[in-house]
Description:
Blueprint: H1 6-13, E1 42-45, E2 50-52, E3 61-66, H2 73-87, H3 90-93, E4 97-102, H4 110-120, E5 127-131, H5 134-143, E6 148-150, E7 156-158, E8 161-165, E9 171-176, H6 182-193
Parallel strand pairs: 3-4, 4-5
Antiparallel strand pairs: 1-2, 1-5, 3-8, 6-7, 8-9
Amino acid sequence: xxxxxxxxxxxxxxxxxxxxxxxxxxxxxxxxxxxxxxxxxxxxxxxxxxxxxxxxxxxxxxxxxxxxxxxxxxxxxxxxxxxxxxxxxxxxxxxxxxxxxxxxxxxxxxxxxxxxxxxxxxxxxxxxxxxxxxxxxxxxxxxxxxxxxxxxxxxxxxxxxxxxxxxxxxxxxxxxxxxxxxxxxxxxxxxxxxxxx
Length: 197
């Protein structure tokens, strides 16, 4: 699938609900994400160090939202992205960054993120898990038209979506987990990297 055709996918499912959950409805005026530019933001990574998206440059970035207490879509999505990482050629892996941004910053402090990455086998460098204040997460989430809300107990309903950003932080692809195709995402990554598959 050529990257130019991704707009259809974005319109159909940019805010698909989490698998097995009922995420809140997106705003009625939510615009398709493909082509949107993501402003730089600063959060904390799993080591407790500041992470600046504006300074991350150099290659494509894959972004998704999760929380460590999630037992439904998040582990499935992490497994898909880990498999994608394994399928990439070594030069590609060196140029692509995977960002996991928590929607539960109160509980998901850096030690919890380190434990989660270890349990799921997410390698570093390559996979960066991010947290911050609640206001930080809400601000970043708005840029991605993220929909999330606290349910009873520790459950959080949230959009289960993968976003592909180019080196200039423009959204080039939006992939709802329910229809996530690793071959299509690999193809789109190769296009952005100027390689061929």
